[in-house]
Amino acid sequence: MISNCGGENIHCTDIIMPVYNQASYTQACLASIAAQTPSRHRVIVIDNGSTDETPSLLSDCRDQGLPVEVISNTANLGFTQAANQGLRLSDASHVVLLNNDTLVTEGWLSGLLLTADGDKAIGIVGPRILDPRTDLIRCIGGLVFHTTRVEAPPGQGCAKDDPRFAESFDCQYVEGSCMLIKRHVLEVIGYLDEIFSPGYYEDVDYCFRAREAGFRVVYSPHSEIYHHVNVTANAMRREGPSLSQAACRNDRIFRERWGHRFWP
Asked: 3-class SS at 113?
């Protein structure tokens, strides 16, 4: 089951999960963490003013004695601000941002830690992310090009055991849907930039900032998760245009900030 982090354990990991409604996905994600994560860890859930069964679900977790810490917001602050709330609460040596529409698999966290601790220069690590509908690779890190928007690298749609992706490699970014960050990175560059609120590009920007500060951003072949993709984002779009507008605005901000670092 989910085990709390003792402050004395420098190898403990905090798992930070912003949520907004979608209680069934949150429940499934929490169950997968409990079943597949023997490493010492704590789950910090930031509830962005959910109006479905999410508050009851999280209350049940506490009633059952599961050490899931909950931050309850009265309104939906979006992913970026909610993630920062969790990052500010965390004092662990490793922190993982994790979307609630993911399912983790056996060894997912130990695999991220294995890669992260393999080199002091590594600051951020991402797993192999699979499409739950097809069991094929959806994302293994990313590259950014001058002529296109942010895109996944070659490998999307390939078999998860494709030998080309059996070794770790450096990326320009890894997705915030599952991103391990070392404590030292937070100490050096701080938190996600809330100019990107409510969401989109904050994860890519964070990886670029980390690389500028001298940290490596690395894909780990030892860790694997499933990601349903855009479950919360699609729900927010149905409520209004703010997220779609933010995506366009944040694309412009990101290009203006980092165009000199794009791949040709």
From this structure: helix
